Each structure stands twice: as structure tokens, then as C-alpha cells.
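tool=predict chain=A
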Amino acid sequence: MTNLEKYKAALDQSYTESVDKTLSNLRDGIKEVESDLLAPNLAEDEVQAYEDEIEMLQSLLVASQNHKFFLEQEMPSDYVIPKLQEKFTPEELDTMLELVQSELYNNFFSVTMNLEQDYSNQLEQQVDEYMENLYSGKGH
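tool=predict ok
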């Protein structure tokens, strides 16, 4: 398998797994909120908040399903690889892809992915706190 073939496979797999995980998380989120909605003695505003959240999650689910449909029509590599081939010679591309597979690059990539995940988690926590304050009447 050439470096380009390895890159193509890894790129397409990464995108596909990401979309599949998003779909799964949204479905789980909808189930969780629907379950919360069944709790006894909910105030009318709480019911409305849960229903609004379900509606938002369902619209995100539809958007993600559309994303998956279009992803299956044109994989990322179908777009990216021809653009790379326009900009670089086959030798340059092979050299860069060889570097991408190196241990040093993988270590760097692993560190940056962890930092990006930390940032994402922090952002998600801020959004959760904001939404919690909003629904509890403490928001702006």
C-alpha cells in the first residue's frame, strides 16, 4: 500500500467515524432528554425547556444525517487528494506523507489532539453551565 493509499484510507475513516460518533451521541442525547421529560412533577417551563432541547437535538440529528449522506457521495479524500496532487509532485507528496507517518509527527499530533480535546471539553462545560444557569433563571 502506498503512502497516498494509506493517507486516503485514514482520512476517510477518520471522517466517517467522526460523523458516526456524532450521530450516536445525538441519538443518545435525545433519548436522555426524553427520559428526563418523563420525570414526575415537572413545571410547565421545565417541560418546555426539555421539548425545546429535544427539538434542537433532532434538528442537529437531521443535519448530521445529511452530512453523512453527502459524505458517502464524496469522501474527503475524493476532494483533498486531487487538490494535493495539483500542488505537489508525486515525490513531494510521498515525502510529506512519509513524514506524517513518522513517530515524531504522531507524537506531536497526539499532543495537539489532546490539547484540542481539552479545549473542546472546557468549551462544552462552559456551554453546559450557561444553559443550566439560563434554565434555572440565573442567565442573562
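The helical segments are 3-37, 44-73, 76-87, 90-100, 103-135. The two ends are 56 Å apart (CA to CA).
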